[in-house]
Amino acid sequence: MKEILDLYENNKDSIEDFIKETLAANVDSLSNLKETNFKKLFDTFISLELLYVANKDSKKQTSPNIFKNKIDKSRIGESRDYLIKRVNNEDNSDTAFTAPYKSSATKNMCITMSKIEGDDIILMDFDLVKLLERLELIEVNSFFTNMTKTFYAVTGFSMVILSLFIILYAMYSFGSSLLSVHGMSIEAIFKPIIALTLGLAVFDLAKTVLEQEVFFKSYSKSSKLEVRTLTKFLITIIIALSIEALMVVFKIAIENYDKMINAFYLISGVSIFIIALSIFVYMTKKKK
After folding, report:
1. How far is Cα 11 from Cα 5, in angstroms, rounded to an integer?
2. How remote is the C-alpha of 232 from its chain's centroid?
3. I want to staple 125 with a disulfide (CB 3.0 to 4.6 A). Which of 50, 109, 121, 239 is the partner?
């Protein structure tokens, strides 16, 4: 979401000019559109998602919430003073805009344009993502976006469920060993730890996928997020492998000391993994 706000801030003047110029070119007076529930405005602006009217003096809403395909009368009479105060009107013109915020009515990030006509303040909410798309500042295909979002949601929640099963398995394994007649062993302690670490790695990956691709869609073209996600995941895997190597060392030292070379190979492999990750992190930071 940060990149959306950054895009807006970098192109704020162009966006506001686009809305004002489009409005001036297509509509003489907003008040004349009341009888048709401002249908012409919704046809003119694809990004317009909500419109309502407030009294200039009392700041109370005098019209219903007008959406493109429905009308909600439950908000009539509510005070809009809190929103009108957020309108940036430094030049004292009849048209002004708020900073981006999340709409309580649509749950989308939007900006509100206010226009004073007579005793009315007409407030229009514009979907920020659709507005940026209209100005070709971002590229969004609705069908592909929804399909991708669904796929990521299914995959992400599946990984969450699998990570939960891994954690439950680890607890079950430890409980079984604890109650076993053969007593506890080093392997019985380390294996649940490895399973828990892997469960944490899977959950962390699932959380990143859901955050960036489902709940807070990222439009950033920067590789910073991918590098951070990959690094975090690999560190968790290295921890799991290191615990496994430590368990192998203890097991071989107790039972088959002559096979200690195998533990050395495993620890060497983990060390190479750590060196490779260190070089990767260093190169990405140096590139930035």
Report:
1. 10
2. 18
3. 50
Q: Which of 39, 66, 43 is nearest to 54 (CA)?
A: 66
- Dist. CA 4–CA 10, nearest whole Å: 10
Distance set, CA 164 to CA 169, 175, 189, 233 (Å): 9, 16, 19, 17
Is-above-0.70 flag for pTM?
no
Q: In 3-state terms, what secondary structure has residue 79?
A: strand
Q: Write the DSSP symbol of residue 103.
A: -
pLDDT tens series, the chain, 288 aa: 667 788 888 888 889 999 999 998 888 888 888 888 899 999 999 899 999 999 988 989 999 999 988 999 888 998 888 887 777 666 667 888 988 888 888 888 899 999 988 889 999 999 998 888 888 777 656 677 678 888 888 998 998 999 999 889 888 888 887 777 666 666 677 778 878 888 887 888 888 778 777 776 555 445 566 677 778 778 878 887 787 777 777 777 767 777 778 878 888 888 998 898 888 888 887 765
DSSP 182: T
Phi/psi at 5 (5° precision): -65, -40
**Structure tokens that stand for 75 in this block:** 């908000």
CA angle 136, 140, 144 (to 5 degrees): 155
What are the residues facing 117 on neighbouring strands? Answer: 120
